[in-house]
Amino acid sequence: MMRLGRPLVVGALGVLTALVIGWLIVAGLSRWTEPREQTPAAVGGKPITEDAERRIRAKLFYVAEDGQRLVTVDREVPFAEATADQARRLLEAELAAPRPPLTSAIPAGTKLRQVYVTDRGEAYVDLSSQLISAHPGGSLNELFTVHAIVNVLTANLPAITAVQILVEGKEVETLAGHVDVRRPLRPSEKTRVIFSRKDEKR
Amino acid sequence: MSLLRALRKGPCLPHTARTAALLLAAIGVVPALVAQTPQPQELVVVRPDGRSQLSVTRAKSGAMLSLADLANVFHLTIREDTIAGGVTASYKDKTIVLVPNQRLASVQGRVVSLSAAATRAGNTWLVPLDFVSRALAPIYDVPIELRPASGLVIVGNVRVPRVTVRHEAGTNVSQLVLEVTPSAEPTIALDGRRLIVRFDAFMIDAKVPAIDDDGYVQGVRVAEPASLVVELGRRFKTYRASRTSGTDTLEVTLDLAPSAPGTPAPSPPGTPTPSPFPGEAPPLLTEPQGVRTIVLDPGHGGNETGAKGPGGTLEKDVTLVIAQQLKTLIENKLGLRVLLTRSGDQAISLDQRAAFANNNKADLFLSLHTNASVRPGVSGAEVLYLSLDEYGPEAQNAALQAADAVPALGGGTRTLAMVPWDLAQAPHIDASARLAAFVDAALRQRVTMSGRALQRAPLRVLIGANMPAVLVEMGFLTNADEERRLRSKEFQTRLVQALYQAIERFRARVSVGVAGATGPTPAPSGAPRPAVRARGEAAAGRLR
After folding, report:
1. Interface confidence (ipTM) of the complex
2. pLDDT tens-digit series, residues A18-34
3. Is B174 on the interface with A (CB under 8 A)?
4. CATH number, domain with residue B440
């Protein structure tokens, strides 16, 4: 038994090692290729291997140069099949620092934690604490912050009608002491964006 | 886009329109007409749900409006066509196409001439005033009337009668004749040394001449809402009012006389026997009942410092200083009860602030703040009141329900809807809008306003307030100059004066409403929440 047992153990160990290595390779590869999985796998039967990531044209919202309004800028954003995934891509683009003279309405350092979308078309956007701690205050700034987040989703995703902002996973009253964010907010007609820049490249 | 190009090419234009436009331009008829009418500094856009301003830019080609401002006020979508070099403004599914350097616009495919060409200015476009009447009005879904001489744009079914004032100075009697077209019923009330003539209209478009002070009338000015205020001189003791109606005009004659109250004033010769307003004696104003308690809310406090200026000034400190000064001024001059949500540097939740006002049965709530922008150049004051749009239909329904509680014309029953605590402000939004307009008007006379002077927003501190409530952003702390001003005694006094005046005028308006009305049916017991509304808002509502 002993004589037979040793090769068996060695063999089993070998198989296990092979499995682990195999899994590592697969997992590693899938991690590498994950963003590309968003792209359609093939066109005309041929797989796409080049950097042909599918993108959508989206409107992002920034503080205008005169500081009186938000302006929209058309940007390309990675495509995603599911609404929540697309919302995530849009928010990631919105949170990224824009090129001057554009200025973000969202405090620098704010990270996206999670996005949920309900059946009623309400999106819950969970952002990191910098949204509050790094906010410079003032009702105008705060309105711009809230509208930029609400608008980037409602303007680009018809399935989303209202957006509630969460901070570190929790409901908050306001971001800087003025704007009521305790419930999902709809985009307001009165604060609509009134000037758009076209075809700005990333 | 193709339309734009077609317009640019010219030959594709309808021939008659083009010829006409060229002719007009050539003989200079349009510019001459524009030059003759006085050009306002700004246009006031009046619509049933409030008003807004459009600033007028003076250009070589005359008075111009920013397309960006127009888009904001009229909900237009502006698209620039960089290839064709033009710009389109669309409203719902209708489109106006403008081509730079051409005094033309294509309005839903029809070419109309404008008094000046659209020009680019910075990141916006400038269009002539008559863009509003010639291009925008035809595609809008409610009527738009441009009154350039009065600086007014009237949108929708809003009553804005023209009122012309004539004054005949005299020694025994002084006469004021008010010609109102189209007719609007006046309510007249005497408030100390002022006679307030309030018209049943949204606002008035009044022409007041320079007044020759004869001891009876010192001056006449336009006041909010839709009122003329006659400042009375020392010789004035009593007055008599009479009216003559024409087809579309109402003439109100006010005879101001020195005799003691009770004795009818002598009629000046030549005028028909006046048919006075109901009741022979002048309708004297009773004790003001509208506004008794005011809650001032100095924004932020404690570790919640609010905005911070480049020089280190903290919002919480500025707001407290102003609130304290304003409290003293109102108490001294109006004798009202004024309470502050915080008297020191402590943190108070937004809910507590509104609850404090509700528990103290305040008739007016003023939250004081200073603003901040990521653009240090932004400056100016702003006035905000609550918007429910962002909350969706549920909140709006609550507001509508409350609106149903307004007493029906001709008296009768009055249903009072229960409004969720959380939306206590909903039934007061109209009154808050009027209060905001008073604050905006008073500030405007004394300090610089921002480009977004009067706004609506879903503000946390206002939504729970069961009374007319506004939030005032007194200036931008992030602007170094404005930060310096906000620290200066002189500027603080200006702010305090303006806020005081706004409160005084709002209160006077509510008071006139109470005096001029038969009195609202008292609220049934068991519905205590709209009590404030019954005193303030319902009275004001009748004055609309």
Report:
1. 0.71
2. 666 666 655 555 444 44
3. no
4. 3.40.630.40
